[in-house]
Amino acid sequence: MKKLIALTLLGTMAFSMPVMAQDYEPPVAVYLEDSSNVGDPAITVAAIEEDKLVGEYMNNAVTGTWLLEDVVPVAQGGDVIVDGVQTDLTFSVLKADADHSGVAQKFAETLGGKVLNVVTVKNPVTLSFNVANVNFYTPGITAGQNVKVYKYNKGEWVEFNVTEVREDHVVVDMTSGGVIAFIEVAQ
Is the CATH number of domain 60-187 2.40.50? Predict the structure, then answer.
């Protein structure tokens, strides 16, 4: 009887080891919105590569992200002011991963606030700057709303200077790209 149990356990281990050794990746899905009529499959492929909806890709926006409900969309349409000089540059707005969303939620709780969205912002590769004044389009934000913006840097959230909060816009002085969280805090 002992041999039968030992052989059963050995067989179970042999069949379960490959399953246990596999890495688990969260599912990645990109859906075409009902209103999508891209006509160009390259746009759909590019959206998939950025883990975005086609509309997000085409509008340089993030309208939803891992672990967060009721997010405020974040987009960037160009005209970034770099070290005080108006440019026609656009910073890319990409989805942050689930780990950053979770860490941002925990951080927001310490502030008594709520995460509005977490995104990854990338500046053009060749751009070197001290301060870039970036106007983010954030539909649903109202004038006077107390929105703070923080960058995740080596396990810490560092506050960026928010220069203006107006209807559907949050304007931020950024010193570098990276993962940033838009957090509403009590007045």
Answer: no
Contact 179, 118 (CB under 8 A): yes
Residues 6+ apart with CB under 8 A from 135: 76, 77, 79, 80, 169, 171
* Residue 135, both tokens: 């106007």
> 171, 120, 161, 97: which is closest to 141 by C-alpha?
171
Domain assignments of the chain as residue spans, ordered by start: 23-58, 60-187
List pLDDT tens digits, range 3-37: 444 444 444 444 333 333 333 344 444 445 555 55
Predicted structure pTM score: 0.80
The CA R_g of the chain, rounded to the nearest whole Å, is 22
95 is written with which tokens?
């989805």
Cα-Cα-Cα-Cα dihedral of 5, 10, 13, 15, to 10°?
-110
Question: From the centroid of its chain, how far is CA 68?
Answer: 10
The residue with tokens 């390259």 is 42
